[in-house]
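Lab notebook, bench 4. We co-purified these components, and the gel suggests they stay together. Before we commit to crystallization screens, I want a quick structural picture of the whole thing.
Request: model the full complex, all chains together.
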Amino acid sequence: QRSPLNDYQRSKGVELVNSAHSTFLANEEFNIHVEECAKRCSELLDCRAFDYNWKTQGCQLLPWTQHSAHIHIQRNVLFDLYQKKDYVRDCFMGNGVSYRGTISKTEKGKTCQQWRLKSPHDHRHTPNPRNGLEENFCRNPDSDQQGPWCYTTDPAKRYEVCGIKRCEAAVCLSCNGEDYRGLVDHTESGRECQRWDLQTPHKHLFRPEKYPDKSLDDNYCRNPDSSERPWCYTTDPNINREYCHIHKCTDKKRLHHVEITHGCFKRKGEGYRGKVNVTTSGIPCQHWGAQTPHRHHFLPQKYQCKGLEENYCRNPDGSEAPWCFTTLPGMRVAFCFQIKRCTDDVEVEDCYNGYGELYNGYISKTRKGITCQKWSEQLPHKPHISPVTHPSAGLEENYCRNPDRDSHGPWCYTMDPKTQFDYCAIKPCAGDSKPFAIGDTGVIFDECGKRDNRVISKAR
Amino acid sequence: IVGGHPGNSPWTVSLRNREGVHFCGGSLVNEQWVISTRQCFSSCDADLSGYEVWLGTLFKNPTSSDPEKQVISISKIVCGPSESHLVMLKLERPALLNSRVAIICLPPERYIVPEDTECEIAGWGETRGTGNENVLKVAMFSIISNDECNIVHKGRVKENEICTKAMAVEVGACEGDYGGPLACLTLDCWVLEGVIIPGRGCGRKGQPAIFIRVSVYVDWINKVMKM
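Here is the predicted assembly.
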């Protein structure tokens, strides 16, 4: 039940543009499924890629890839680009007979001889549309066990292998391979992987759009769920998922993107190595090495980079915060939210009185260290408050100000497109306290806070 | 909720991760905005694609055919002022209000809830064996002053926090309830006076519970919704 798309590598939101000419292999047709496009491209010997237009549901079959001359990739949200893997992979699968990449140097750095030439080395391999013997690119027309090779332009060296790596060895596996982004697309038993963006033959939760940080690309082996190793769903309807065989790195014993902390935790706390060993509500944690009261697969010996020592709160699976299995049989896991987050606030250099509505200092950074947007600018945020709307609020440059009497102090629009406004790295001056309203404030609530309180009659 | 009983709290929402697993509570303060606590999220600019808010159901694990369940993706997270421990979550589309989904009122700015006001917490969190694990539970409390609360908590309760009276039996919020509401009845409307935050223990008897006082942050909440 393999999909014809399995032979293609998808790039979202882009198309291939040929600056030299714009002929296509066939006229664009509309209302065809992307798999049908893949099928048609696979049937054509000279088709190497296709642009799929999601709006018109049409595709353009292309005789080139991003590595061809005069071709460049252009952003276009309407399109997805599908290129045949054999042409764009920088590693080879199996013995490399299907490799169609553009490496043209041997492992010792010698330039390859053009396949159509018979000198300096005469040979019997004649280019044809099927064998891919183009230019002087490394190929493996005789199924050599060492992979793609070529005749060299050095008269003293007839041929040499190119040193291209097998995909299993091209990218090694550190820790449990959560950050593996290599191109292996078969399981250790040799079954082909199912594409993550398909729901057949196996229906699953790991939709690529739901896990953008997990790089669930095409049908490559990945580890989005903190399993022991990268894995994939298989194209065999009878086998749901299997691990993939990928070489382990010899020297990497820590996750490179994780910062180690002890007294507090950063981001999701995957690097927390402190000694808190109870949950938020004070329940002692189960030792990671133990299997009672809860059986689990997070064994310290299998997750060597995750700091699963003793019964300390840890985050081996990318949860929201450090957690542990609890010692209560009825409560399997619980977060350790009592561990403080490391402050990512910036150093405070100034203070303000009251609400800071009279603050006229020169601080122009938010508490997270983001530079403030100029009050008179319209980008990245279109301001509701500006020198025009509040001419007497001192909205100069990008200095922190409080034109709307915000009780949390001076603020600004930020230069981060994702954060419209934020408070500044300024603290209230000591001794300032703000009044509270106690009791009846005369506020009348309108369309909120009402619910249907059904009274169950106790009468027989 | 440890102790308490099954109840109806149409503004209490369930926050679900990418696997659809409930991890925290929240309160619907506007058709398109939910208030929860910062502790439930990995960062202020966390990538929340795939994270959802479930509304309109009383069940922790409703069936996919539950006619009243609404599932809406979270499109944005905004962290509150320092010390607030609050976050606002923007929903991808407005929730449909009906008898199962309602908006809770916000208190007046810097309003102090009078002592002995009756309030309730709600959530689908841990019950510690007190029953009704799979349905929304609520528990009733009355408010005490911060001064009284500080006698037990040794001066650690700040003005941006609000306390409920200690109970003689174990009852209170627990894992999975964090971010949910402390709702108090004013006239005939329920008002979001507090947000459940992680504390020491679950429903510890003889200990006042501490919540974030929402009235201190009402101006920020309105500003975020307006902007």
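Chain B has a mean pLDDT of 92. Worth comparing against the SEC data before the next meeting. Chain B is about 5% helix and 35% strand.
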